[in-house]
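If your schedule permits, I should be very grateful for your opinion on a structural question. The matter concerns a single protein, recorded as an amino acid sequence and a row of backbone structure tokens. Could you please explain, in whatever detail you think fit, how the structure tokens follow from the sequence? I set the record out below, with my sincere thanks for your time.

——
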Amino acid sequence: MREININWTKEGAMRFEAIAPSGHKVELDSPPEHGGDSQGFSPKTLLLVALGGCTGMDVISMLRKMRQEVTGYHLEVKGWEHAEHPKKFDRIIIEHVIEGHNLSQEQVDKAIKLSHEKYCGVSASLVGSVEIEVTSRLVQI
């Protein structure tokens, strides 16, 4: 079981603070058009962050084990929302942009596939609810 505390801060109409057992904190808020002050991540944006962070940690770990010479790595995560409430994500695209020396497209694709299909718990939690597309772009240095 995992547990997290999320507290309304009273500093803003919609501002909350999530505190992990480790003590790390994340500020949540909504934009002014939804009653907030834009002083933190929106919950749906954090879902994209969680998905990108989960798969990114898997992939970089596997690429290290595969002895890939990664010098830079970032993910571009885009989500499209349903037009009506609850305005859930219908589609998410995750592009893995990996920089390095002598990178193997085959090894990168394998790591991404393993993350998406086997290891990333956030991705697994979304399967069947949202279409997730993964792509990669290698930048050979």
Notes: Residues 51 and 125 are 10 Å apart (CA to CA). The chain is about 30% helix and 35% strand. Residues 43-140 form a domain with the GMP Synthetase; Chain A, domain 3 fold (CATH 3.30.300.20).
